[in-house]
Design a protein that fits this description.
Length: 587
């Protein structure tokens, strides 16, 4: 039955119908075969009885000698075999055998029954003909008060031939009936299954995501099934639509998360990775689903975390990735129902801020240490030297005041920068003309003590309207211009050849203010951190004559002012000097 289980329902029904048909016809044949055989035997016995009765009349009328002559004459017209036996069992005549060569027949059942009751019948094996035969015997009185037995018989071969002929006709009719029944059964099964096949087709289209309804059925039972499936299909479509929406929302949420998400199954293969995780792991392209996780993680220690999490362990570790500038990633692992979840957080900025904080504290301490040391030295000298030369006391007091003012400027700049970075300025913007502002800055730059031999060029449009806080913008742009003048003078000294260029152009929705010089420029190492606090373009702390009084806060303040205005401050590498671009939104 295992092979039948593999068949379709249609084939199973057709097979069962065929099996029932064959079983019914087989049973009918078994029953009919017995009935036919018994009927043929009865019919044969009746014919033998009639033939024996006619022969008995001849024997009674003609006597034995006359009967033997008639028997010889009738041999061709008689059916079957005829035997004449006396009461002692001796065979007097036989139509097929020599009587003298035949055994005594007194013990034959049909002969004994005929001698005792007048007639006898039997179906048995004949030792004379070596076949099964049907016998009918009748006792007939003859002259002289004696009696004789006339026996007629058919061999069962003859009866079998009749049975075989009937069986062949029956089997032919059976084959025709089977073909007819199977053909009708196949047609009926096809008609019966046609509505179900339509329902299966509709279900297949629904399974592929198509919009489909189950067909209307003429049969009430199938219509109830179709309606129920329609309702279930509608619920399924609604659930799938809701699930699809939730999945899309979840995907958007996970994609927008500020952390990386990496989902791994129990076979240690990637099932999901968002863009942030790909970026944090420095993957050029997101890995395909099913990629072994060891091909994705750049560190063996990370892979060990996955193995530990698969065993139920949870941990959080920070890894440093070998990238330019360095990158730090915190990875937290946890076991899920289907595998492992890795959450990646970028700590690079946090580490950079922490490093900047430490450097800021060190730099601020260094910048404050110099004036404090000078003030202390001057104060100690004044205290420890009672007799001073004329004007010396005034000199040291002036030094103390100058260094105090220097510390005050440093503290004021730090407070200003801190305020701008921590809160939105509350002063309202005002209408201003960038051409006017930059013209005044150019005039102030020309009046700078170091600008005597420097060519300061201008290239401004007739007007450049903006809505800004004019004082803040002036401070930021003046810082850029003064820095350019200082560093050009540092390079050229009191000699001609120095140049500072101030220009205004349009760039998208902003004004682009370019401040260019042909000074010593900015080193490649200093460029990435040029806008950080206490950073200077010369790349070292020591300030020469031309940098006296600077703390490395000017560019940081200028950038913050421009960012708060809605613009930005950019540095462009140049082989000859430095180029800064200030972007200010146009009115």
């Amino acid at each position: 039955m295992g092979g039948i289980a593999m068949f379709s329902l249609k084939k199973k029904i057709l097979f069962l119908v065929s099996l029932v048909v064959f079983a019914a016809f087989g049973t009918s044949w078994l029953l009919l075969h017995g009935v036919v055989r018994n009927g043929i035997i009865k019919q044969g016995a009746l014919e033998l009885s009639r033939q024996t009765e006619l022969l008995s009349l001849s024997l009674a009328r003609e006597g034995v000698p006359g009967f033997l002559r008639d028997l010889e004459r009738w041999r061709g017209a008689l059916h079957g075999r005829v035997t004449l036996i006396d009461t002692s069992g001796a065979v007097l005549a036989d139509t097929e055998r020599n009587p003298s060569a035949m055994d005594n027949h007194l013990s034959r059942p049909e002969v004994q029954e005929a001698l005792s009751s007048g007639e006898g019948e039997a179906v048995r094996y004949s030792r004379t003909t070596n076949t099964y035969s049907l016998y009918f015997a009748r006792r007939v009185p003859v002259e002289g008060g004696r009696a004789a037995v006339i026996r007629s018989s058919y061999t069962l071969d003859y009866l079998s031939s009749l049975t075989r002929e009937i069986r062949n006709r029956f089997l032919l009719n059976l084959l025709f009936a089977v073909v007819l029944v199977l053909g009708f059964g196949a047609w009926f099964v096809r008609i019966f299954f046609r509505p179900l096949e339509r329902m299966v087709t509709s279900a297949g289209r629904i399974a592929q995501g198509e919009e489909a309804r189950f067909p209307l059925m003429a049969e009430p039972e199938l219509q109830r099934l179709s309606s129920a499936l329609d309702g279930m299909s509608a619920q399924l479509r609604g659930a799938l639509s809701e699930l699809r929406t939730e999945r899309e929302d979840l995907s958007r949420i996970v994609t927008a998360l500020p952390v990386g998400v990496l989902l791994i199954d129990e076979e240690r293969k990637v099932r999901y990775v968002n863009e942030m995780a790909s970026a944090l792991l420095s993957l050029k392209t997101p890995p395909e689903e099913g990629t072994p996780v060891e091909r994705v993680l750049p560190s063996g220690d990370m892979y060990a975390m996955v193995l530990s999490a698969l065993q139920g362990g949870e941990e959080s570790r920070v890894f440093g990735l070998p990238e330019p500038g360095g990158r730090y990633v915190r990875i937290t692992s946890g076991k899920t129902a289907t595998g492992v979840l890795l959450v990646l957080s970028d700590l690079t900025e946090e580490r950079r801020i922490e490093q900047s904080r430490r450097e800021f504290i060190a730099d601020a301490g260094h910048e404050l240490q110099t004036p404090l040391t000078t003030i202390r030295a001057a104060a100690e000298y004044l205290l420890e030297t009672p007799e001073k030369e004329e004007g010396e006391e005034e000199k040291y007091l002036s030094t103390i005041i100058a260094q105090q003012e220097r510390m005050s400027r440093l503290v004021d700049d730090l407070l200003l920068l801190s305020r701008m970075e921590s809160e939105v300025p509350v002063r309202d913007a005002e209408d201003a003309d960038l051409t006017v502002i930059l013209g005044k800055i150019a005039d102030e730059s020309r009046a700078h003590p170091f600008a005597e031999f420097i060519d300061i060029r201008e290239e401004f449009p007739p007007e450049a309207p903006v809505r800004v806080r004019a004082d803040d913008i002036s401070r930021a742009l003046l810082n850029l211009s003064e820095n350019a003048v200082k560093y050009v003078r540092e390079k050229f000294g009191p000699n001609p050849g120095g140049m500072v260029s101030l220009s205004i152009g349009e760039k998208g929705g902003s004004w682009s203010v370019m401040v260019c010089d042909n000074g010593p420029g900015i080193t490649e190492d200093a460029a990435p951190v040029i806008f950080d606090r206490f950073r200077r373009g010369d790349g070292h702390r020591a300030r020469g004559e031309w940098g006296k009084g600077g703390y490395g806060l000017g560019l940081a303040i200028a950038k913050r002012i421009l960012v708060n205005t809605g613009g930005d401050l950019l540095f462009h590498p140049s082989e000859n000097g430095a180029v800064f671009e200030a972007l200010i939104p146009r009115k």
